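Input protein
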Amino acid sequence: MTTDDPLVLRVAGRPVGRYVTRPELPAGLAPRPCLHPVTTLAGTAVTELSPADHLHHLGVGVAVPDVEGHNFWGGRTYVRDRGPTEPANHGAQRHASFQLHDPDGFVEELRWIAGGVELLRERRTVAAVELTDTAWALDFTFSLTNVTPGPLSIGSPATNGRPGAAYGGFFWRARKESTAPDVFTADREGEPEVHGTRADWLALAGAGWTLIFAGATERTRRDPWFVRAAEYPGVGSSLAHTDRLPVPSGETVVRRVVTVVADGRPDRADAAALVRKAVSR
């Protein structure tokens, strides 16, 4: 994988993330800009790029398996009554320009293109925020505008007939270790209890690191969490959980997810305090 002028995010002068704008990847992986590696302040990597179990998992970014039948997630496409298929329906997110880029963040314009047609135009705003001497936050907002003459809709394998697979939207592929990470919210614990639920924040805790995800707007908090821990470690916010999400021509879908990246394992009270500090900045 090669890149074109990758951008490095820094917190208090320390590099914590590398943003790849133009990845050279096969079309079947739905090429798209992504953050990798992302690290804790102590330097522990908390992302993976094209791991063997899912080559189309690309660090941190936005990935959607069904935009009006086009796959911007990568890998196979789930089709109702047929199961996983491999049509040539993959799209790509193409970096257009930076409106702003500083060591602690950037504002980017992207074009979502499939079959030679631009379907969505995205504005992505990303900031790295210092919280404590052991934690920082990645503040990630994306705005998707339908630039076609007609309506579009966003779906997921769940809306196409595969229960429990409502992935699509903001997605963080986390570090895989010899044991699965712990998953918990303010009042639930374990992947089966947390997956598919709504929660103000959700934590994924591995060996010496913790990621705490929070919807930072009222609309974002209405999206259920997609969680994997046993099969692979990953967390996303579901745009299309039970129903397809319509996007009329000219309309915009906006979501903001803030992720606390911490060394060690904060308890529930500390996790909630870190989220409050990160979201209210």
